[in-house]
Amino acid sequence: xxxxxxxxxxxxxxxxxxxxxxxxxxxxxxxxxxxxxxxxxxxxxxxxxxxxxxxxxxxxxxxxxxxxxxxxxxxxxxxxxxxxxxxxxxxxxxxxxxxxxxxxxxxxxxxxxxxxxxxxxxxxxxxxxxxxxxxxxxxxxxxxxxxxxxxxxxxxxxxxxxxxxxxxxxxxxxxxxxxxxxxxxxxxxxxxxxxxxxxxxxxxxxxxxxxxxxxxxxxxxxxxxxxxxxxxxxxxxxxxxxxxxxxxxxxxxxxxxxxxxxxxxxxxxxxxxxxxxxxxxxxxxxxxxxxxxxxxxxxxxxxx
Length: 304
Prior knowledge:
- Helices cover 31% and strands 26% of the residues.
- By secondary structure, the chain is an alpha+beta fold.
């Protein structure tokens, strides 16, 4: 693949040199601060640009990877070939009565704060989730007893052929950390949330309480990929890891957090390979001690 030629063709669609980069370091765009280079990294600012790039990549058989704010993600050290599309410049949030429409690149935390400003209740659970709106839909993100499916009404998506679709919550098939978006390779443009009128003081009290719980229990002082493993049936991943004596275990620069065993933190210039090796060590140890198969919640992409 001729990267220079690809850059030139994509530049005609994006038309802003600040929104297209060649051989970009992806560690600059992930919460773990790890990851190799992207051949081409683009930041679309309109739905039209997204559609153009998606249609182009499909017709030309060029790999296309979608990147939100890189929170629950590990990008391997070999980077990503083809086009990486980062949606973090598409962050508009608006309100219509009890509905909030938010673009894919908006932080779900910002959407929950916007809901508070409009005295709307239902998104308090999201006040500490570090992902984007698109990421929240992709994995049906949840915390503290709430999840995206509870408040989602519909989503505007683009198929990998470049066709735009409006899908209802039922069509999105949201399950535990899963969705039709992940299964069908849809790209989320915007989400529509249906909330209820509420008391601003009570909404803020709930958000303050959840923020305190998160800050007191999670290792926010270090780069991390968030919760690494899904909750195994009948267990808690963090408790299994802790009871396996793995808290504080380190591979390279990455450590099982001493604050919360369900998290892995980058304490000393760790690499994606360090993360993957530590994940494998934890899975193997928990399997040996408790005969429980841990399944990763974090998404792993890219080349070795």
